[in-house]
Amino acid sequence: MKLTVGFLMLILSFILLPYNVQVERITSSTMNKTFNATVITPKTYGKTSKKYSVVYVLHGWLNDYDSMNYHTEIGKLSDEYDFIIVMPDGNLNKWYYDSKIDPELKFGTYVGKEVPEYIDKKYKTVKKRSGRAITGYSMGGFGAFNAVFHYPETFGNVGSMSGAVEISGFDNKWNLRKIFGNYEDNKELWDSVAVKNNLDKFAEKKFNIVISCGDKDFFIDINRELHGKMLEAGIKHTYIERPGRHNWDYWREEIKFQLLFFSNYL
Fold first, then answer.
1. pLDDT tens, residue by residue, 157-177
2. What is the pLDDT of residue 246?
3. Which residues of the chain have pLDDT under 70?
4. What is the 3-state secondary structure (H, E, C) of the chain?
5. How far apart are CA 197 and CA 63, in angstroms?
6. What is residue 1's predicted lDDT score, i.e. its pLDDT?
7. Pick from 13, 18, 155, 158: which is nearest to 80 by CA?
């Protein structure tokens, strides 16, 4: 009888127990600081010898490492697609960029190199670029593209939801001046980080790219322009524009499309 009950419990663990959510403390050696990251493992994790693909999801301005988990059903999506999902912290408003204005801020290196190295060391992951994707909403969309431009050997898949794919024109907003300096004095830097001005980097390695934005989002024009530039350059990508604004109603649904897209490649 004990063996029968134990066997049934094992079967039930595969069927009933959901994804697991835990908070990791991940140290940045370049900043000498430690930040939180939410890590979701699917219900199959630890029950097989499988190595898992990982999707990194970057939060927006003034959100944190747990915002996507709190506002969406991303844990269920981890189960559905059998991905590990990692949501690192961007320290509220640091734009996932290695600031040339404040050299102590190295969040580009943190999310592009240090966090993936930690995850690959601790978890059973697919340790190659084809097994990693990175996406994000708003500020996180900027961060996702910045990560693949600087660490193309780390990520082979990239997405953006309502992304700040260009920051010029928003120079008095969202802590941008503390990261990139005044626009008047640093115009070349501000323009250089626009995704549309880095399209040549997509020719160096193959990427699977998905971009989405709501039609009433204040970032819709720059996303439409990026889409057009990518078409002109012959860069294969998926562009999604549907009714929506810059809010959780949109991102709650859009993360489903993003992970569905990545599931075709991971």
1. 999 999 999 999 888 899 899
2. 97
3. 1-17
4. CHHHHHHHHHHHHHHCCCCEEEEEEEEECCCCEEEEEEEEECCCCCCCCCCECEEEEECCCCCCCCHHHHHCCHHHHHHHHCCEEEEECCCCCCCCCECCCCCCCEHHHHHHHHHHHHHHHHCCECCCHHHEEEEEECHHHHHHHHHHHHCCCCCCEEEEECCCCCCCCCCCCCCHHHHHCCCCCCHHHHHHCCHHHHHHHHHCCCCEEEEEEECCCCCHHHHHHHHHHHHHHCCCCEEEEECCCCCHHHHHHHHHHHHHHHHCCC
5. 27
6. 45
7. 18
- Give the model's pLDDT for residue 105: 96
Instruction: Give the orientation angle of helix 248-263 with respect to helix 74-81, to 10 degrees.
Output: 10
CA distance 142 to 230: 16
Instruction: Say what the pTM is.
Output: 0.92
* Residues 6+ away with beta carbon under 8 Å from 34: 25, 26, 27, 28
Tokens 């660490």 belong to: 151
Among residues 177, 180, 179, which one has the least CA distance to residue 190? 180
Name the residue with tokens 């140290």: 27
Half-sphere exposure of 178 (CA within 13 A, CB side): 10
194 in Cβ contact with 145 (< 8 Å): no
